[in-house]
Amino acid sequence: MQEISPTTGSDLDYITAITPPDGTLPPRASTPVTDADRVDLDGTWQFRLSRSAVAAERHDLAPGTDGWKDIQVPGHWPLQGFGDPWYTNADYPFPVDPPRVPSDNLTGDYRRAFTWDKPVEGRRWVLRCEGIESIGRIRVNGVLVGVTRGSRLEQDFDVTDHLVPGTNLLEIRVHQWSAHSYLEDQDMWWLPGIFRGVSLLERPDGEIGDLFVRADFDAGTGTGTGTATLRIETTEPARIDSPELGITGRSSGETIDLPGAEPWTAETPRLYTVTVSTAAETRTLRVGFRRVEVRDGNLLVNGRAVQLRGVNHHEFHPERGRAVTPADLEANIRTMKRHNVNAVRTSHYPPSPRLLDLCDEYGLWVVDECDIETHGFLHQDEEHGAWTAPWKSNPSDDASWKPAYLDRMRRMVERDKNHPSIILWSLGNEAGTGENFAAMAAWARHRDDTRPIHYADDVACEYVDVFGEMYTPFARMDEIGRRLDRIDPASTVDTLQDVARRRLPYLLTEFGHAMGNGPGGLLDYRALFEKYDRCQGGFVWEWRDQGLARPLPDGRIGYTYGGDFGEPVHDGTFSIDGLVFPDGNPSPGLLEFKAVFAPIRITVEPGGDTVHIRNLRDFATLDDTEFRWTVAFDGMTAASGTLDVPRLPAGTAVTVPVPATPPGDGERVVTVTAVTRSGSRWADAGHEIAFGQAAGHRPVPAPAPTPRPGAVAVDAVRAASIRLGPASFDTGSGTLTRLGGVTFTSPPRLDLWRAPTSNDLQTGQDGSAAARWRRANLHALDHTVLAVTETTGQIRVLTRVAPLARSFGVHVDALWSLTGDPGEVRLSLTATPYGAWPSTWPRIGLRFAVPATYDHVTWYGYGPGERYPDTYSATRLGRWSAPVTELQTPYVVPQENGARGGLRHLTTTNGHHRLDVVAESELGFTARPWTPEDLTAARHHHELSPGPETVFTLDIALDGIGSAACGPAPLPADRLSPRTTELRARLRVHTAG
Ligand code: GAL
To answer: For the whole model, what pTM was predicted?
Structure first.
């Protein structure tokens, strides 16, 4: 390669080169444990940021920087005070004009001096760069060693001849943009820097070289008497030993039969320790035996069709970005395991090898994805901004890019090939199709015939082994499940390719877009996975909200998204779409995932006398699980115990009795939970895996009294208020202003609004629900009282609630009556829509507010978390209690949240007065320290601050959640179409002392 002029900076062609990296050694398998030496170069380096590559040569620094500063490696410079992050989804943040990139190309010079006192004779020393975004030009003691290309790909350089005894200088010049940025258009923050480790590795003469573990498991007859074989291919002949496997002094290249070895599965991640040695070096491997194949239309592991209950995992930390630590990764894995996740797609690049080690150890199926996305070449309608096919000038189908594509695939496969957890290679994401992908697939198949290939953009499945798709609507998936799909959905005849594709198993590469409140509809997807053998599960998009932390002036932490750094082109909130919040805490979406995809299905039969238990695992028994039961009356536990459950092999079920218990007062609820018998790396003993619940008889509420006609209207001018027992009503508006000692700061009134969720806002497959609500002016309702009539013991208020400027609305007929309890009134309300309603309703309920001193709520109903029409699986019937502040779900982007459903009664108190609501019809509630308008207006969670009131809604019904931000809207049954609805409840006030 050419020496680059150190002074003129004129030879910058390496930045726009579309070739693979320069000066690298062939990639090889990662084998973390070796007795060869290693020098870690992570830590504090020196750093200088320049505006451009040319400026870097002239020491012309970026604005706001002044010379060499300390920086941490691994790390991204924009997260360490140098420049800013930039978020885009599919757009390139520069003109699409490959291979050119802007000349304003931020350039970071990294340097590190180190003392070298290691021997160089009889060995080579290799500089390993695990990840540099975008490219890094490397010099050792002033000599150019090479250029890295492929941000998330490991690259090794032989630096032996450039090392000197004593002080050495390592310099890496990193450019934010390069031609290779065109291949790295993943939906994530652009975060330049040396973000993975840098080290020097000893390679003694006579070392093992590369190493390919072929650890096969033949499940044989399926009776459990499988046979394992081991063959380890090495560059240099080596000796193989494993006391655990009874292997002594065997040779590399030999196939060793191991009849007694247990298979590796994600449910039983059995790893064996094997050493591989030459005279010069010994490496210690963790080997797992399994066989992956596509046979008879299914993806099989060890002969069985597996269900992937997966997530898409980006490497992300709110402070460190993609420079994640092993502890960050392990925390993710533990949270995944605790929430019944059994698979990971490494969207959209090979992860840190540490993640794969953890997947091997903890047990997770992995789809390892290559570092390629060219989404910004998808033709964009320049007027409307919509992404429409076809692709234009896509590198994926341009032969001049082929070496780069092949190099990326090769680096991934070679580095990761020995991980038993990896069951599929994925060629990349959203990069269209083309000859370069076909070549990658062919190369991978030739190199590794033990793993099928996935790539969702090969729609016709010309070179992949599984049919992968994203965000598929339910009806279409049903067709796919029945193997009736056509590549061209408009066609009415089958092509040969249609027939061939139907033979492939089907995976949802991405589904259940977990943006904000959601995803809804996971149960509907589960039903399809269970109905069709072809549908073998998939991966929810995505694991974690990619919100970068920003310290706020008041000491709190805020989370940011696109646009918060002044990016001129960005994709806003689209990076906030995870099952866990940026800080790693589970969102309600993850709890829903856990319940929906639990590998144990517990169905307590109505009446609660028996329970049906199904083992939905693919391999393991439930011997590690204990089943506990409780019987509660009105939420108070009356009896509990442990169930006797016979041995349940994978895929089997049993019905067992729940012990008889004495009768009690109130609603009888039987709950059965499956918990871990003993502790493990990821959960303590007693960790709940699944639950089932059945409510017995719920006492029928007494019917409300029928209004008597002919009552006399009160003259609003004569009396300011009307009294009904403990209740006072305003005569002008007919609203309840006071009940006993409780003053309503906002009286109960019908409400139809909710702060739109991310799914409501986005124009997914069904257009934007929120846009329709706004067009219907549901955020601007007028409440006009039509009549207030009073008869003995009751008050009837007729109101017309209607959006401004519209001719449709709702007639509300509210009847307030006495119940005989001196502190109580009963409300019986009917809401009847009129006119031609053009949209669904976000919610229908009664909204009121009381002073913020009512800051705590206790309820008997479903909880403890939020619940919507299509996200309810994680909640159970019980007694719950929480401060109002904790009833809020801290979605990064404020939106509707925190609804509790199936309410029997609730109580809120200020310590002096207590307000009870007793539900006599299907009811839910929200309680917030701010108004729905505040929630609608705020752009970040931290912008919300508690106001002077606690605002309640008593919800009759809510619209579904769905995942329309990128996927299907809620199914019609979960939508709240305008309809006549009723609310019956008793409101009661107690005063302490
Ligand atoms: C998919 C893409 C993901 C992400 C998602 C939307 O199409 O593969 O990377 O952008 O959409 O959040």
So the answer is: 0.96
